[in-house]
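Tokens for 23S rRNA (Guanosine(2251)-2'-O)-methyltransferase RlmB. Go.
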Amino acid sequence: MKDKRRNYKEKFPKNKKRPAQTTESEHLQEADDNFVFGHHATVEALQAGRGNKLFIQEDAHSDKIDQLKSLAKEHAVPLKWVPKQKLDTLSDGGVHQGIILAITPYEYLSLDELLEKNPKESEPFFLILDSLEDPHNFGSILRTADASNVSGVIIPKHRSVGITPVVTKASTGAVEYVPIARVTNLSQTVQQLKDAGFWIFGTDMEGTDYRKWQVNGPIALIIGNEGRGMSAGLKKEVDEMLTIPMEGHVQSLNAGVAASLLMYEVLRKRSDLT
């Protein structure tokens, strides 16, 4: 691959009446739209100032519960003790650990905002998730992205999982630390990144062995859909394809596993780890 880099360029429905008073069940229904559950995710959301109301199982008592009560008080977040059945309903049967936090909607960045946070001199490394659909995969990727110092994640607005309660819990709170941009068109986004001096990489069965990957300068890595892989349109925009050699019988790795391996390869090379 050429060493020459591109020049970096900075660049409630209407007319519907609300009830005069909101009942407890209505509060819980509102929480169902925007909430996180589980201890770690709740702590991170409270510390990030995104809490609206904290729901705790009425018979829950522990040091972790005391920590959450203190955090809620510190951030002026009201607390409500509720039956376990209410929490089971809100979490859709998920492992809520007796804790659910109603939160403000997640605020995505624009691509320009993400670029402003990551100047060329810092050699940013972005992940582009091409229509990822599994919230557990997305949450796992965000968790690894935080651990491996990824500069930001880019997702499409349509036909892709966004920041949901399951994603937040699977990320164990990493969603509060990894900048996430949501864009309308991934092909246009890739072109804008190229104009900004980024080299674009993808993954395929055939390509350069990832261990020979040149990771200097601003780079972006596309991770394809769990079943379909990378879209044909985006493949045409890629500067270089990377492959992960395998000796077993399966043809490909899980999207989250492949992304994690490649994220740590960048960290290893940029940190001079052996």
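The radius of gyration is 21 Å.
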